[in-house]
What does this fold into?
Amino acid sequence: MADHRPCTARNETPLERADLNFGELLQELRVTQTGVQILFAFLLSLAFTPRFPDLDTVQRTTYVATLLLAVLAAALFTAPAALHRSLFQKGAKPRIVQVSSRLASVGMGVLVLAFTGSVLLVVDVTTSRAGGVAAGAATLLVCLGLWGLLPRLVQRAGAAEEQHSAGEQHKAVGPRAHESVGPQAHESVGPQAPVRAAAPYRELSARRR
It folds into this structure.
């Protein structure tokens, strides 16, 4: 049986959480699929341009490799939809979300290589091979920085901010708790100590009487 107990601060069940995650993943895939479709159409149109027969071996190899990378990226980005359709209403939504997330991550890496190859090819054909290599390397670095390094920096900044706010709350709550507990403890314990200490003497004097 599926677990329907709340698992988050939003009082969501695991199935509700999986539905939400899958919906967010599909929104991300729609954005990336648009870029893949534009790139794929551009690469297909290059084969029918007048200058395409004049490409040398390196340029043709770059074109074919980039085209195959674009096809692979498109297949990876559309695989979650096919996976969801094949396992629809079979209680596998959490597993679908996990596998789809991995497919999307791999697809992003393949798309980076496809972008790099496209820029390399275009700049190589229009200017020079050295310029194409430089432009391709710059494209690779920019994509890795925005898609790989930036999320980690944001995550670290969020974790540091949470630790700082937690420390400030601890410092603010600590003195207040000490002030609220301290006088009450002294008032409750202080007067009772002499009374308890004097109790045996009172009993002894009463027996002597």
